[in-house]
Structures are given as structure tokens and as C-alpha cells.
Amino acid sequence: MRRKDLIAGIIIIVALAALFIPFASEAPDGLERVAGDKGFFPSASGTARSPFAAPFPDYRIPGMGDKTSGVVSGIAGALAMFCIGWGIAALLKKMRAR
Amino acid sequence: MTIVALGQFLRMHIPDGFLSNSVTIAAWAVSAGGIGCSLRKASAGMRDRTIPLMGITAAFLFSAQMVNFPIGGGTSGHLMGGALAAILLGPFAGSVTLACVLVFQCLLFQDGGLTALGANVFNMALGGTLGGYAVFRAVMFIYRGEGGTLVAAALASWFSVVLASLLCALEIGLSGVSPLGIVVPAMVGIHGVIGLGEAAISVAVLSFVIKARPDLIYLKPVRAEEGGL
Fold first, then answer.
1. Inter-chain contact A24–B67, Cβ cutoff 8 Å?
2. CA distance A48 to A50
3. Is the ipTM of this complex over 0.95?
4. Which of B24, B110, B187 sits opposite A30 (nearest CB)?
5. What average pLDDT is seen over chain B?
């Protein structure tokens, strides 16, 4: 991939995130809807809960409004995922070489 | 009231507390083995041009999954992206990519429970992604060319979401949380609609990529064109 295309790709993703995340529907998603309609809920008696809390539950960043949090999480997370995806792919390629 | 309370609990993927211990453990075991296989196969098939594209795809899946679109009836859905990733990167690199996104969402944003991560990876990164790619290849076999790619991508994307929702429903049913006869039709029905959104987004992204950089799409059927397969 040429450098120009890569930069264009990242700019497009960041722009789409900034444009669309504030307008994301807040309605329950498929699983939430079914759980609500059919009356089943996460139970404390089921599996153990996570041993630690995620730093940004529900993509909320402390001290920021919900919409801003969403956009910032979406962009920062996408940039982090770009590096992680690239890194893992490069590692897999390297492993094959050996 | 209950829905409001539920909304604070979970967002998109299976949260903690939905699955029984045995289903949780089984899903973790199958996912660990499946992702291990995917890593090996992705490593063997990794091409130079796939490396940056895997970064771009991971970034896109992460932010696109945050954009819930309304499907009517006060319900929303969002892109899963397994079929899209498999079409761009190949099935195994695609499943590794989606698994990375799910792990990242779970650890940082509590989107999907940590105990349910095995099931989420199994349903979406393995089942949805590899199943979707199988449909893509089957349709491409019949109908080649750019039109064929888009039709195949649409069907593969729709199927990937429905399959993932079926697997999720089976896990919930087997956990004894809700009877199978209720949860399976409800989940598959609603995701049959969400799958239409998945297909629309995947086709839009792919037709853009085909216009901009047609060489980026992972098409193993090179061998088929040579008369082999």
C-alpha cells in the first residue's frame, strides 16, 4: 500500500467517525432488544464478573459529555487499532519468515 | 424501567452474566483453539500489502462498530464487519482482525464482558467471519467479476450476522437463561434485519475500495482463473 493511500484511508476513517458517531442510534441493539422483550437479564449468579473494571465503560471518558466522549473514543480507538492491526500483521509475517 | 436499567449494563456484545459457566468455558476453549489456528494460517498467507491493510481494516471496524443505525421498532444494529474483513484480508487474517477489535473493546470500553469474550470471539470472529467468507467464495464461484464480488459480499455479510446471532442465541439457550424456542427465533429474526444494514455498509465500503484500489481485495481464486481450484 502506498503511503498516500494509507494516509487517505486514515483520514477517511477519522472523518467518518467524527461525522457519524454523534448521530449513532441510542436505541437498544438486537441482543438488548431481545433480552428486554423476552425478559432475561445479566445475572450475578451466572458467570463470575470481570475481575477488573474497564477504564472507559460504554466509551465514556470522565469529564467529557457523551457525544464528545464517543467521538474521542472512536477516533483514538481507531488510531490505536490501526497500530495494533499493523503490528500483529507484521509480527505474523515475521513469524512465517522463520 | 428494566430496559433503561439494562442499557447501562450492556452495549453491543454479550455482557458478563448471560452465559452459564459451562458455556463460558466451552466457548473460551473453542475460541482459543480457533484463533490459534487462524493465527497460524494468517501467518502462512500474510502478504506484504496485507500488513498495512490489516491496520486500516481494524481501525475501520472499531469506529464503524460504534455507529448504531436504527432498524425500526425502537431497535438498532451496527456493523460487525467479519465478512468485510475476510474479503479484504482473507478469512484467517480477517478473523484475527475482528478478534483483536473485540478484545480491545472488551478490555478498554467494557463492550462485551470479559467472561463472555470467548463466546463473542467464537460467534463473530470465528463463526460469522469464516462462515461469511465461505458464502462469499461460494457465490463468487458462480458469479465472477465486479458485480459478482458485490453480490457475493452482500450475501456473505447478511449471512455472517445471522449466523453470529444464531450462535449467540444457542449459547443463551444452552445457558438456561431463556428457552431455545424463544431466544433463537427472536435473535435470528431481528438480526435478519440488522444484516441488511451490514450488507449495505459492506457493499458501500467494497465498491469504494474496488474503485480506488481494486488490487487490495483478497482474491484467492487466482488459481481458479488459471483453471485449477
1. yes
2. 7
3. no
4. B187
5. 90
